[in-house]
Amino acid sequence: MRIRLRYQVLAVILLANALLTVAIVVANNQAFSTSFENYQEAVQSKRLAPLIEALAEDYVDQGGWQTMDSFRWATLIKPFLFGRPDADAPSTTQSSSRRFRGPPLQLRDAQGALIAGPPIPRHFSTWLPIENSAGERIGELGVPTNLRLTGEFDRVFADQQRRQLRWIALAALLLSVAVALPFAAVLTRPISRLQRATHRLAGGDYDTQIAVKGSDELADLARDFNHLATTLAKNLNARQRWIADISHELRTPIAVLRAELEAIQDGVRQPNPETLSSLYQEIERLSALVEDLHELSLSDAGALSYRRETLEFNELIQEELSHQQAAFDRAQLQLTFHPADSPVLIEADSHRLTQLLSNLAQNSLRYTDAPGEVMVRLSRAGQVARLEWSDSSPGVPSSALPKLFDRLYRVEDSRNRASGGSGLGLAIVHNVVSAHQGKVSAQNSPQGGLSIIVELPLRKTG
Fold first, then answer.
1. For residue 129, which of 69, 36, 48 has the smallest C-alpha distance?
2. What is the CATH number of the domain that holds 282?
3. Co-location of 265 and 337 in the same domain
4. Do 73 and 117 sit in the same domain of this protein?
5. 452 and 313 fall within a common domain
6. Which segments of the chain have a pLDDT < 70?
7. pTM value > 0.70
8. Whole-number Å distance between alpha carbons of 31 and 441
9. 3-state secondary structure of 341
10. Are 385 and 455 in contact (CB under 8 A)?
11. What are the angstrom distances between the C-alpha of 273 and each of 262, 267, 276?
12. What is the arrangement of strands in the sheet containing 137-144, beginning at the earlier edge strand?
């Protein structure tokens, strides 16, 4: 059976209130009973005070407790217990004393020896001190603990207080129900809104937003939901642009191939080496685009294999630049490398870092005007290795710098496509750096072109 959250919250509140009410009732009843017992003892002591004074006077008159027998004991206590310590008291003959069945009071001397009264164990009685005029204890009067010499009014008062306490507890529970019902509704209302918004979001409505009220955990959850909806909307737009861009990128070389082949079929062009070379270049461009797409999709899915090992970054860069040197010479670009002053050891995949350096080199080769220059600098910056790859003009507008690592992004589409770039090289660089727990950024270079800053963590020592 499915129970709504509102009623679960209500049940928890009522259970907590019920337990609290029971605890208060028990504690209050215990406190009242203790206080009432103390009150009864005080009343009892006050009512027995004349008897205690009479016993003290009798002790002084008789010179001790030696003359205290059952007859004298009954004679002393009966008038005080019945409230007639005068001549109107019942007969105090020895025969009547035998018939006296008053409360089982006890008398013992200063040493604790029982003088008069039934032999009730000491721990069942409350002992009131008997003192002479000098303040010396001469004996004790024992009153059974379960005996309360109180009036009917006291008992009625106690019962009335206990009944009122039970009614108050019941009223408190009913009041808690009346308060908990709307409170549970208010508490669960944001969750209900979030539930409805989640259903709309799951249905594809990524423009769904929730009004954020307050600063508690539910408000934080609403803000997180809004951020999630915004992110999904951005991802949807990016995917749509991605599909459109891919379609456009594939359409161009395919259209060229189709035009060339149709021209050959129609006899407009002859299948000579020049025509075949043009077809081959378009196929190479299409193959490069498909290969970049494949590499990027693998890096997005985390499917690229990374075999980390300890590498000396200076040597890896120097080796890759020596392979690229001929291409830079043909492009009339001066390549300069400034290695770090000391070995730079990192934990990385040499093949993926070589791919990263190759993509940076291809980016400079395609988009740097000749004659130009490319400067590569490696240094240490705290616990990271900092690689700065800078080239000369043309530069990139500042507004475009954050977008350079977006897939298929080009500052000038026509020029980049003519240069043979797919717009995926820097996106692959970003994924490779992220896989190595590094950072990559772009900024304008001092030479008037573009600087790509790559930071990779150094190998941990010790």
1. 48
2. 1.10.287.130
3. no
4. yes
5. yes
6. 1-7, 80-103, 122-123, 145-155, 238, 242, 245, 248-249, 252, 292, 295-305, 407-423, 462
7. no
8. 73
9. coil
10. yes
11. 17, 15, 5
12. 114-116, 106-109, 137-144, 125-131
